[in-house]
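Appendix B. Raw example, untouched.
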Amino acid sequence: MTETSEQEQRRRRLAAWRGSDRVLWRGSAEHRIGDRLTALVADAGQVYDLDQPADIYGDGVVEKVESRVAALLGHPDAVFFPTGTMAQQVALRCWAGRTGNATVALHPLGHPEVHERGAFGVVSGLRTVHPTSEPRLPTAAEVAEFEEPFGTLMLELPLRDAGFVLPSWDELVAVVAAARERDAVVHFDGARLWECAAHFGRGLAEIGSLADSVYVSFYKSLNALAGAALAGPAEVMAEARAWRHRYGGLMFQQYPTALSALLGLERELPRLPSYVAHAGRMAAALTEALRAGGVPWFQVHPTPPRTHQFQVWLPYGPEVLDEASVRQAEETGVTLFRRWFATGRPPGVSVTEMTVAAEGLAWEEEDIHTAVAEFLRRIAQVERAGLSE
């Protein structure tokens, strides 16, 4: 597909999603700039005194975000970052200096290995090793028996590319203990940590304080404009501020992002447990509907979902499924699925990521059954038209 045609397809998808009356969630790309700015201006006064001066190099409203995050995650201090990529490189660089070991043990499906162009090694001089290649986080035995020394164990909670999977609380505690038995520190890649509390049955402070440092994102689940934070010991966070400056992350002003982060913490964070619970219902309904529709093979993974996100696997190419998805949105005003991908999957199998957020709470099981039936009809139409070739 040429760049022009891909842009045209993207515009078509966005128009279909924006025009849908029924969705399970709204992605950030669907929002228009004017709408987001209008909403921020209307709502920001509920979480911060807008008569205060704008932040300058990390003071003011940015400091408020940092103190709020530190308290939520059970750590003495936190540092605001423009991106999670930068936050985690800084964290692991700080720990490498303290442990004397620049090797980081993490999963090969972890975000830094798959989505960051090798930045750990290229930018920060870190080396990565993999205690396991199974589509789950490493076990305590795998960490304890790994053949190479490492300074930091990095755990992505949940492990997105494996299907938003999580260990049990007892398993997580055991893995952390195994790392510390090896004199390694533990860092949580918590880009989606906010929604893990329901699965673990623990508060965020208990989860966060289990690790030596924690990174969290503000836009992935809290619907902020952007931004991230790193929480940990005060002396490590002091060094993190120095490295943030060196990495170009000490921004002159960040009040729009910081205000949107405070709004997310105030509004979306308390709602996440309801999203997680409803995702379980929607995933079960999807399983029933796909089975009733006669799909020859499918997978809803994991079952049940550990958070409000999960995967659906279907035995068709991504071109067929993308076309069927957008046609359904255009023709019925219902967006059930978004983009489909085949990379890393068996031949003839595609996967999509599902999210259940505020918009999805209005859906009942029968809505899923109706939407799946409409979707399967459009798959048949697309295949008859020859787009599967």
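End of appendix B.
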